[in-house]
Amino acid sequence: MRQLDRTLGAVLGLVLGSLMYSSFVSANADRSPIPSQPSQNDCRVCHEQTMATFETTAHAGIASSCASCHGDANEHLKSNLEKGEPGPIRSFKKVKAGEASQVCLSCHEGKSGQKHWTGSTHDSHDLSCVSCHNPHPAAGTRPKALLRASQQELCTSCHLQKKASMMRSGHMPLREGKLECSSCHNPHGTPYEKSLLQVSANQNCYSCHAEKRGPFLWEHAPVRENCMNCHDAHGSTQDKLLKVKTPLLCQQCHQASSHPGPAYPAASRYAFNQGCLHCHPMIHGSTHPSGNRFFR
Fold first, then answer.
1. Residue 215: is the preceding peptide bond cis (ω within 30°)?
2. What predicted TM-score, i.e. pTM, was given to this entire model?
3. How far apart are CA 35 and CA 176, in angstroms?
4. Residue 138 gets which letter from DSSP?
5. Cα–Cα distances in Å, from 153 out to 16, 157, 180, 272?
């Protein structure tokens, strides 16, 4: 008899517990539970379009969740559910440039292209990674390196003088898309002047113009010193990107008695055709035994 009573009591307890659980679920059916660690699917409820574009980027397969960049979303989600207001979350539109960059550098700092960002020219001018990159690109687009615009447009939006230079008759083939600013510079910083990829301007130039590297038997000192002594790398109104047309360019250094100066008149035989280069064509250097005057 006692055993029967125990069995009936257990059954009754189970029935009552089930009824109480059903009543609790019904009463709270319109309330969404707050997960201990919100996932990307939780963010998708409000940010569907943003998530759809994010999934097409390289970050989608790396970041464990939105919290990787935007911080703990618990309070953000809790405020939305309980108050209908967005709670605290890291918004890159509001944080300081240094803080925004540090989030990106937590993954990218060890990579060769970004290891010199801290203290670089752009970092020192309060630019951040998101000034040029957009981790959530517009729908239907897959921009290279998540850039907000083309590389040339981004660079020239600040470097207006260089933009003007590139519009001149003689210019680097940037406008034609054969080169990019990053062909010579690293916008994330380098240990070298002007964020050049190579240790000097000459080394940068030699990466394409190997024939100008030498070694030469007879060297032209200003050429060995810096290509920029005679050329404007971003653009010029002169042929060959020269800063000034010859012979005036050469006369900035040379006032030899063998060639009367200070400036050759237009009718002078020395200014014929290419000016100085008409007689001294190997101006970058000569390997000929008789090339001390760069004649051959």
1. yes
2. 0.76
3. 52
4. P
5. 70, 6, 11, 41
